[in-house]
Design goal:
- The protein contains 2 helices and 2 strands; from the N terminus they run αββα.
- By secondary structure, the protein is of the alpha+beta class.
- Strands 1-2 form a two-stranded antiparallel ribbon.
- The longest helix has 11 residues.
- It is globular and about 45 Å long.
- It starts with 18 loop residues before the first helix and ends in a 9-residue tail after the last helix.
- InterPro entries: MobA_MobL (IPR005053).
Length: 85
């Protein structure tokens, strides 16, 4: 029997965390971080079965791209102690 586990945590700049790095790790992708000018590459990570970004109809289509979405979040929030996700 498989056991399911779900947990939610904040991603905060004040704690030195990076939202783009977190998104890359969770999705197992390679994503460029424009805020820190870094590439986060987790393509060799195993165990990622499915990834998807769900948006309401009024959100622009470009926001379904994980790299664009999380770089926009970094760009919009200016506070150095912000909780980004």
């Amino acid at each position: 029997m498989a056991l399911y586990h779900f947990s939610v945590r904040h991603v905060s700049r004040g704690k030195g965390q990076m939202v783009v790095a977190s998104a890359a790790y969770i999705s197992g992708q390679r994503i460029y971080d424009g805020y820190y000018n870094k590439i986060h590459d987790y393509t060799s990570k195993s165990g990622v079965v499915f990834t998807e970004i769900l948006t309401p109809e009024y959100v622009p289509e470009r926001m379904t791209d994980r790299e664009i979405l999380w770089n926009e979040v970094e760009h919009v929030e200016r506070n150095n102690k912000a909780q980004l996700a």
